[in-house]
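Pasting two entries for a bug report.
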Amino acid sequence: IPGGTTAYTRAGNLTVDAAGQLVTDDGSLVSPAITVPTGTTDVTVGADGTVTATTPTGPVEVGTLTLTTFRNPQGLARIGRTAFVETAASGPGTVSAPGTGTAGTIQSGFLENSNVQVATELVNLIIAQRAFSANTQAFTVSDRTVEATTALIT
């Protein structure tokens, strides 16, 4: 993050900037810094965090990504679209190699998606609206019946 603040992200869409540095989608450098050689045709990240660049002379290991876990991830403070900083509530981060301890692994070529199916939720919303409408009509009919009964009694 500009200004030297260390931030954390789950956004996995990393790119290479004009200077050959591996950066997040908002242009922030990853830490530790990883430089991709000029002429690289492909960059891959292994499940263990190893970053490999395919150069004209063959594959070259250019660095390793690490993962940071927190005692209370909900305690992190959002400072950008996808950036978070640690707080007293989150506790200090524990840096580890992917696949060790409580750290997960890295899945190259995949992005995390929402666990909500939009089409299913829209159908559920329509069903709920129709049920509400039917209940409202039932109350209206009940009110009219009570009114008619009251009118007959008086």
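Entry 2 (this is the one that rendered wrong in the viewer):
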Amino acid sequence: MQTKLKRTKEIDPKLHTLVLLDDTEAVDTYCQDEREARYVRQKIEAKQDIVLVNQYERMLLFVAPPEGKEGFALKEAYRRKGFAAAGIVKKEKIDRLQVTAPEAEAVLDFCEGFLLSLYAFSKYKTKKEEDKQVSLRTLTAVHPDLKGKAIKELEAVVEGTFFARDLVNEPAISLNAEKLSKAFKKKGKELNFKVEVFDKSKIKAMKMGGLLSVNAGSQDPPTFNILEYKPEKAINKKPFVLVGKGVTYDTGGLSIKPSTSMDTMKSDM
């Protein structure tokens, strides 16, 4: 992730600022005069989702509040607003941006959507093309109640999502089952979690017939991966266990799926 996520308790008056509104009263705090504030209010009342104000020394972005949303739907609404705002930030070539809102949770949800929208699979692109992807170098979450732990957790979520997307976007020729297992082992060493890999002989010994039958259509051998993380001060008495499949999508076997489903099958990884 090229963009650095930071946190602070107070707004920097000299920095480009994005304000998540819960009502239009907050507009007066950031605008230079009543004329500017009236312009923002008119745009918000006209259902414009994001209003951009160029104050020359800094940019202001006012984001209209989600209407009729609560719970998970509200969190997703803020993520989507983050995605929309990222497009404007790229267009305006803003390099540093601070985000604030009345609620700390809204700031985090918005930043999550914003950062996830910056993803690009640039491994096979030239350096020149890669540099064009992101102009923003620093994204600062501003709220007095924001904790460093929440920022670190959000960074981990974004980095983990980027890692998963990179694996999905790798072509099958460069990421078969064995190479996927190597990627897990490398990440395990980096983040200090245990990775155990069963090779084909071990899978046969464990009588995993379902996995072997699916793999029969491929010239590459299968693997079975166990990723295990044990924190030092775990608060849960029983482990959380997630079971999934790692489809590397080679050309073995016959497909009985409709052609439209084949386009997204690789995302089953």
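Dev reply: Rendering is fixed now. As a check, the viewer should reflect this: The longest strand covers residues 4-8.
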